[in-house]
Design goal:
Largest sheet: 8 strands, parallel, barrel
Structural class: alpha/beta
Low-confidence stretches: none
Order of helices and strands: EHEHEHEHEHEHHEHEH
Number of helices: 9
Oligomer: single chain
Strand order of the largest sheet: 1-2-3-4-5-6-7-8
Mean pLDDT: 97
Radius of gyration: 17 Å
Helix content: 25-40%
Number of strands: 8
Strand content: 5-15%
């Protein structure tokens, strides 16, 4: 089974500064990492640490906005297009320094104006952002988030994510297929993985329903990983889970599943 893992440093070693998380991921044997919001650290410092430890950066997220006021993304927020572009431009500048990694474009919760207004502004923002990202070979990702963890998010199902991607029509806009979110929202993870495979730009996973290691899950990740391998997935698969205890103490699932970090 051929699966290349990346350590999601938004959840793994989350209590440490980012530069230390990078060091710990390399020490644990990972060859790739992905980050949520590393913007407190200059991009050049992150890139130097990544190079020093021989890692590949898979992706980062756009800033969420004003978290204290409840923001969880800006792309689907009418009237805040200028704020979105500022956030996206920051992400693109980091992505370029970090090796032209992918960018997860966060749309946030549905605005008071509702779904239609959110979709219109999100599509327009993505059209512009995808065109700019394409200049540097950068892939953009949109991620459906399950309604249990992210109530009222502008995307909840893979089907809705696929509809948005199709409406934009940019070859560098793809779906972030998080097996955890798909399982919690809709189920039939492997069937949906196969159906939407041509539109997928990155894959993530976590145990269901507690979002812990994949060996603590009501879905069989051996089956899921086998399907990913059979499909010939060429990218990394992101370990985006909350450890039950220490990260290193919980990494036994890698060997147990016949994988390598």
């Amino acid at each position: 089974m051929t699966i290349r893992l990346s350590a999601n440093l938004g959840f793994l070693w989350a209590e440490l500064p980012y530069l230390e998380r990078i060091e710990r991921a390399a020490a644990a044997g990972f060859k790739a990492i992905e980050m949520h919001w590393p913007y407190d650290v200059p991009a050049a410092e992150l890139a130097a640490a990544v190079k020093r430890h021989g890692l590949t950066v898979v992706g980062i997220n756009t800033p969420r906005g004003d978290v204290a006021k409840g923001d969880s993304g800006l792309a689907a927020q009418p009237g805040r297009e200028a704020e979105f572009w500022e956030a996206f431009s920051l992400s693109l500048s980091y992505a370029r320094v970090l090796g032209n990694c992918a960018i997860h474009v966060m749309g946030g919760a549905l605005p008071p104006a509702g779904f239609v207004a959110a979709r219109v502004v999100c599509r327009a923002n993505l059209v512009r952002a995808a065109a700019e990202a394409a200049k540097y070979g950068v892939t953009l990702l949109v991620e459906p988030l399950n309604e249990h963890d992210a109530p009222n998010n502008h995307l909840a199902t893979v089907e809705d994510g696929a509809s948005l991607v199709a409406s934009v029509g940019a070859p560098n806009l793809k779906i972030m297929f998080d097996c955890y979110h798909v399982a919690r929202q809709s189920g039939d993870v492997v069937r949906r993985l196969r159906r939407f495979y041509p539109l997928i730009g990155h894959i993530q996973f976590a145990g269901v329903p507690a979002r812990q290691e994949p060996d603590a899950s009501e879905i069989d990740y051996r089956f899921v990983f086998a399907a990913i391998s059979e499909l010939g997935w060429p990218g990394y698969v992101g370990a985006e889970y909350r450890p039950r205890a220490g990260v290193e103490e919980g990494l036994g699932w890698i060997e147990a599943f016949g994988l390598k970090a």
